[in-house]
Amino acid sequence: MMQHEIRPPAGARHVRKRVGRGESSGHGKTSGRGMKGQKSRAGGHVRPTFEGGQLPLVKRLPFTRGFVNIFRVEYSLVKVGDLDRFEAGAEATPEAMVEAGLVKSAYQPIKVLSDGEVSKALTVQANKFSARAREKIEAAGGTVVELGNAGSNT
After folding, report:
1. Considering only CA atoms, which of 122, 125, 116, 114 is closest in space to residue 142?
2. Digit-coded pLDDT (tens) for 37-48
3. Which of 89, 108, 125, 140 gives 20 to 30 Å between its CA and that of 71?
């Protein structure tokens, strides 16, 4: 087979419909648009959202204000007072917090808030700490380890 012998497969190419070229062409007079009506006119078309006079979907839905921020990061919140259930000198990692029942998932970013008191020296690992929570942990002799970006802590 030579390059000049290559042909597209049968049925792959269609002949262009030439409308308005006389009755004998089969597409004369009304050019395949039918008789009368909106779609037979020049520039006449139905907009994509038109539902035939029925109350449109966009008007049937309740009107809500604002928007949803798709980049919002949801944090699992842990109170400083809840960290007291760990042993003195223990490491409160995301995995350890899941085992202790403080958070549901180790893969969701964790933020430690200052509610409550901590009496033990702990090493607390989380994605974020409030300023007062950081002070309370360090005042009890513990250390604060801030994990990387809030999107993942794998």
Report:
1. 122
2. 999 999 999 999
3. 125
110-113 and 76-79 beta bridge pairing: parallel
What are the phi and psi torsion angles at 147 (to 5°)? -75, 165
Q: Global pTM?
A: 0.57
Give the whole-number percent of the chain exceeding pLDDT 90: 83
Number of Cβ atoms within 10 Å of the Cβ of 48: 5
Residue ranges per domain, the chain? 76-146
Q: Does domain 76-146 have CATH number 3.100.10.10?
A: yes
Tell me the sheet residues that pair with 78: 112
Calpha distance 111→128 (Å, rounded): 5
